[in-house]
Amino acid sequence: MLLIVAALVRAQETAPTKAPPERTYSNAPFVHRIVLLDEDGTPIRPAKPGEDAAATASNKPVSLAKTCGKCHSDYDVMSHGWHFNASEPGAPQGRPGEPWILTDPQTRTQIPLSYRGWKGTFQPYDLGINDFNFVRLFGRHYPGGGALADSKDLRFKASGGLEIDCLICHTRDNGYDAAARATQISTDQNFKYGPTVAAFLGKVQGSAAKLRDNFDPTGPDARRAPKINYDASRFDDVGQVVIDIVRRVPNERCYFCHTSIDTGRADSKDGNAALESRWRHDRDVHLVKGMLCVDCHRNGADHMIVRGYEGEYEDRVKDDERSADSLAGKAEISITTLSCQGCHYGTNVMPGGRNAAPRPLHHGMPPLHFNELSCTACHSGPKPADAAMLVQTSMAHKLGLTRRETVDAAAPTILQPVFMRDPRTHKLTPNRVIFPSYWGWMDGDKITPMLPEQLTAAGVGDILGAKPDAKTFSAMPTALTQDQINKVLEKLSTAPRPALKPADVVTARGATTNPTTAPSTSPAGEPVFVYGESLYKRSGITPLPASIGAPYAWPLAHDVRPAQQALGARGCTECHTNGAPIFHTTIAAAPGVIVDLSRGSAAMQVLNATYRLRWMVIIVGYISAAIVLLAWLKQKLATMGTTKQ
What we know:
This protein is α+β, with helices and mostly antiparallel strands. Helix content is 27%, strand content 14%. It has 23 helices and 18 strands. The longest helix is centred in the last third of the chain and has 31 residues, at 614-644.
């Protein structure tokens, strides 16, 4: 045994150490004239016109893990960054953010999904969505990495893994087409070919979507796999390619995944609801002043991008302490000054004023407001109105992809701003909200949602209405009648459960983000329909338990409005009046379902109702103070007279 241990120690001592990452440590950009490598690490060098192709040259797609990782040897560290780590074991949660939303207008389905396990979202595995199908549905706006790059799901043999695509963010010019990458992923299922096509390095022939589920890349069918025809003009005489790479990511690169457009209310009569009216909207005040998104949303080599919320530093400390290779003490405390309050006011341990941020004085505002309201309550998003407004986002509404037809109320239905207490800070905060809507199987107090394709396979399409064209971005149809719902539930109760195809099996990885039992068959229970805030059964309608049907909300941070456009800039009664939108917002939870969310305490409601009489209270206060002062002076004068005598 001692000999074995000694041998292992010597092997570790003699094992080659990994080369440190290459750095220039200069603010000047480094010209990336580089050799491209494929997934095997083989150089890619297409033949020039009239030149014979080298026997060792590769015609496989570019692998950015190999190409970028050749110099950036800390690629493994980068690959655990916030944008890539959601599907990893024990992935950090952080403050709840925008979920992925499984949407199908015909079946009235909108289900918030997240690998991170945010409360109110569903784990994709629990619905029977394996890694491959997740990429097919949402890879269009996902930079790759994590389980989606190395999953063992069957169809990945044909499509390849979704590696981290560094060029999505780090290209400076228009030499990268993210929409072309999205087409390769969602339509052709050419996952690993996307970066090559998007960077205009070559064109792909063939579609992995046409390959059989049992495709073997080393078998006789390999000849049918997609192939790359490289553009030889992009390569110089030694096989290098120039790519315009930048470290500080331009805002335009962020927008593909992080655009949001206010579309107003669905019943708007003044034209504000039109998507085309977005030219009327002002940009975030920070961007108007010339800042970049990455000035606040920074990251180091680990790519753990700063999200900029109060308590983020404490979250990172906890994540570091529970990490497998404990990183306790590694969290960077300076990120405390990259939240709104930290940047403009500083913290107990760090000064504020970053990027020349002014220190707001808030003249005349009682300090109580800063204990009860977040900065975003007054400064972020559209001003609250009597009815919550619709918003479209890149992740939910496929913004960035071309279309000929869409509507302002395109599904899924996301509403803003809805003011709610932040469970972390207990401050009133504006949120975006979605009400889950789906058919499912209820077993005890648990409901497992059904996928839309499982529902239509049961033959209920005629009851639900025509399925919209996949290329049409349509609104959620009108509410189903009670008779329609009953017919669907009856059909589901007698229809055979659909068989699970091998390509749809969830591959167990032992990750903590996996469900307790990855579903291999349809769940047990009775069919139900969750809609708005109601639970529909064959036996009748019941209110939906809060633990099941609570709307999923995530804080709204942008666009930030300047002081003159802040909530309350026109006077206290913008908030302190009976029925003020900040406390009373009517929400169309679903077509035909209106909800009135009141977010103020009973005492606050009384204050708001009587606030217009504040002038009377002030006058009474001044008179009372004057009476007290006169009484005090009279007493003092009497005392002075007694003393002299």
